[in-house]
Amino acid sequence: MISFSAFLKRFLSDPVAIGAGIVLLVLVLMAVLAPLIAPQNPYDPLQLDIMDSEMPPAWKPGGDERFLLGTDAQGRGVLSTIMYGTGISLLIGVGAVIVQAVLGITLGLIAGYKGGWIDSFLMRLADIQLSLSTLMMAIIALALFSAAFDANTYADYAIIMLILVIGIAEWPKFARTVRSSVLGEKKKEYVDAARVIGLPARRIMWGHILPNTLTPVLVISTIQVAEAIMIEASLSFLGLGMPTDRPSLGSLIRSGFEFIFSGSWWITLFPALVLIALVLSLNLLGDWLRDVLNPKLRRGED
Amino acid sequence: MTQPIVETRGLEMRFALPTHFLSREKPVLHALNGVDVSIQPGESFCVVGESGCGKTTLGRAIMGLLAPSAGEILFRDQRIDTMDERMRKPIRAEMQMVFQNPYASLNPRRNVFDTLAEPIRHLLPDTPAAEVREQVESVLAATGCDPSWQRRLPHEFSGGQRQRIAIARALVTNPAFIVADEPISALDVSIQAQILNLLTDLQADRGLTYLFITHDLSVVEHFGSRVAVMYLGQVMELAETQAIFAQPKHPYTRLLLEAIPKLEGGSFDKPRTPGELPDPVNLPVGCPFAPRCPLADARCRAERPKLRTLANGTQAACHHTE
Q: What stretch(es) of chain B map to CATH 3.40.50.300?
């Protein structure tokens, strides 16, 4: 693999990567440090005052210095809810991609390396999975889940459910990417060289082939995080994702959307801007990673 | 003759071709049809033939990369093709392979040290780490590689350097027998000679036995001690190298030797023997070479000739050699 210093050098020579990296870093730090730096804890009902509801941003007439980006209908500061909400969105995005990657890489490696009926079976399964839209599957699963449990249980397990639903629904993307790389790699002679010394299939798959298929996996991982965040936001926007008292960026956009025609645009606009910045920076970094991790584009600087 | 190091008996290899799952026909490609070779310790046994004659399949079957459909493969009189993996492990350390394409035969994500250490770690797991390092350094030195290469990745090396590393990997477990599958055909002509000389030197130093697969007869002349000429999955002629070049017995061997471009004499002036390889899926009943053979008669088309030993020790599969 590319050494860290070469990686850093490539990163520092690319302004787009630096920009995307800084935006992502700021958002991640903001999310992680939210309990320390947020002006208000939006989860604590004692800190909320209904008299503060629907205040415009601080620089507008009627604004309050305590709430830089205004407040929502429940008197929560938009800035604070964005800080906490970004964390929840990122957690779901990363968690879902880990589930996707574990499922998809394992099944894709087995399908590609073993071939035959195992391959046909797993890939038809992937086709079926892909023909059902992720959003539709997620809506059905979450609607059943929220109907089956009461609101408090739902609120407690919503994050895990979203991670599992998005993770399971999107595994074929990893499986197909990995499988197609494996098909190309397993014909190469280094795989034969490993078989000549009698290395078991498991070690050839994980030790030899997988590292050579990681480039596309890393690229789609970053892009899939963005995708998972978007799916979660869509579900929350439809009212099936995170509940309003533990809002993700999607639920924030939704909760503000009801007030957009009464002039309280800030409740929707600011979370939406953060969502766009988050998804865009992830996608840009994904593209940049694809270029950097391709060993053929490197010129022996490490 | 002494005890052969590697021997095949009636080795057959058939591959089922992909078909529609409803079709009744099950076409089968015959890659090897009863190959008997026995390789003596210390020799360079060359296998030559056109593309598709099964020479690579033979090498891969001997190394256990392909499971034979019929027949036996023996290593020092032990049958290895049906042996279970645990029993075979010590034998794998004795048999190694050098591949054709040095650009594909080294894992691009592994540095040279890890590539070379893996066979020792897997096949001789009791070797202490210091000894692994020592062994890796000694084979690198023996194959003319710089010890500083160990931490570098394959893409930093040229084709000839990579092939040296691949040879070093094959030697790292101290094998007695090496299958070299066209090890020089992917290299520059100037590098080919270096690699051939390296293989010859290593043979002298370590008493290696080679199964050398090639389509290049001039390499055979330089390198081989015995030659098997293969055609459509069968051995057509098997002889000492000098005998093959001086007195080719089989008409196919003669055709191959005539096809070597020469400086004088104009080998392109003579009319070429027409004909193509027969279809390896529907094999002819008689001699596979009969459609191209100038000597072919009715008997050749009806009866497949067996490999027979001639007066000068050459073995040839032809009805017209008596």
A: 1-82+227-272+305-322, 84-224
The mean pLDDT of chain A is 85
CB pairs under 8 A between A and B: 67
Number of domains in chain A: 1
Cβ–Cβ under 8 Å, residues A107 and A175: yes
A189 touches chain B (CB under 8 A): yes
Class of CATH domain B1-82+227-272+305-322: alpha beta
Query: Which two tokens mark B252?
Result: 């196919």
Mutate which: A124, A196, A212, A215, vs B, most B CBs within 10 A: A196
Across A42-64, average pLDDT: 74
In a domain, A1, yes or no: no
Confidence of residue A301 (pLDDT cuts 50, 70, 90): very low
B60 contacts on A by Cβ (under 8 Å): 192
Nearest to B99 among A192, A208, A296 (CB): A192
Distance from CA of A56 to the nearest CA of B (A): 55
A202 touches chain B (CB under 8 A): no
CA B283/CA B279 separation, integer angstroms: 6
Tell whether A245 is covered by a domain.
Answer: yes
Predicted ipTM? 0.86
> What does the H/E/C string look like for A126-157?
HHHHHHCCHHHHHHHHHHHHHHHCCHHHHHHH
Contacts of B222 (CB under 8 A, 6+ apart): B196
Which residue's entry shows tokens 């589930």? A99
CATH code for position A238: 1.10.3720.10
Domain at B84-224: CATH code? 3.40.50.300
Residue closest to B15 by CA, chosen among B74, B47, B56? B56
Q: Answer whether residue A82 is part of any domain.
A: no
Q: What is the pLDDT of residues A103-158, one digit of tens each?
A: 999 999 999 999 889 999 999 999 998 888 888 888 888 888 888 888 788 888 88
Q: What type of residue is B251?
A: P
One-letter identity of residue A198: G
Please list, residue by residue across B281-301, b when 16 or more beta carbons sit within 10 angstroms of its beta carbon and e when fewer do.
eebbebbbbbbbbeebeeebe
CA distances from B176 to A299, A300, B40, B85, B159 (A): 38, 36, 11, 19, 25
Nearest chain B residue (CA) to A2: B109
Residues of A whose CB is below 8 A from B88: 198
- Interface check A188 vs B, CB under 8 A: yes
Alpha-carbon distance A59 to A65, whole Å?
A: 8
Q: Is the pLDDT of residue A187 over 70?
A: yes
Indicate the pLDDT class of residue B284, thresholds 50, 70 and 90: confident
Quick check: is A199 in a domain?
A: yes
